[in-house]
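Why this split exists: single-chain examples teach little about how molecules sit against one another. For that reason, every record in the complexes split bundles all components of an assembly together and asks for one structure covering all of them. Below is a record exactly as it appears in the raw files.
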Amino acid sequence: MTENTLSFSWLTDLANPTRFIALVNRVLPWLGAITAILFAVGLYLSFTTEGDYQQGLTVRIMYIHVPAAWLSMMCYSVMAIAALGTLVWRHPLADVAAKTAAPLGAAFTFLALVTGSLWGKPMWGTWWVWDARLTSVFILFLMYLGLIAFNRAMDDPLRAARVSAVMILIGFVNIPIIKFSVEWWNTLHQPASVMRLDGPTIDPEFLRPLFVMALAFTMLFFTLHFMAIRTEIWRRRIANMRRLAARKASREVQR
Amino acid sequence: MSHAFYIYASYGIAALTIVGIVVWTWLDSRARRKELQKLEASGIRRRSAGSAEGAK
């Protein structure tokens, strides 16, 4: 019981923006350093491992394409959890987390699409096909852009929070569609070869750099997301302070 | 085109995108931090500034 209350108080502590900023200030240098080291190791492994016997060295595109694609889905899942946080638990930082994750998700999805295209041309002979996997990821990209545009168009962040939370949760249906599109439909894109129930089917030679790069991308996401949440808290404080100052000034004029 | 072109184009675009979001996040953060400091220096405080300090 005490353990439960302890972990809960830890969570509610994080709900206090001032405490959250203190936490971010403390962990950010570490997160940044870990991300940089992981990228250094990941890039070294990416450019020193052998080529595939069929694909040659283009297999190296996988080390950025696959982590970017994973991140594009993980970022949306983080946003969906944050949307639940807004609607169910009324967590005061949840909508800040959802709002700031969207541009990062859009960047990773863009990367997955472009590197996929650059890999598709030499391996498939085409830049793009409208198969289920590529189309569903393209829709994910459009959803990120839509959410960014919506949040930018709304003046009141609190009103925007609830509407965008509902939109995020409706859009979440796309995530399992992306994941299983390669099994449900006949796609040019290959089926899963890493996240499989029977274990990965690719050689450890390729799995090692892929794993390190995936970790590097994940750490990069969390580093930037923490930073962006802190910035958004500051942005809202600034807006509040300006509003307060303006109200005070107009009261003084009336006197 | 050779395979090298596709590989380096992929890594190049990845590097540009990642550097882009890192720089953008960092610049935005720095600008807001400065703005907040300027407001606080001019004597404007948040309504909850007192209680937040007290909560520490």
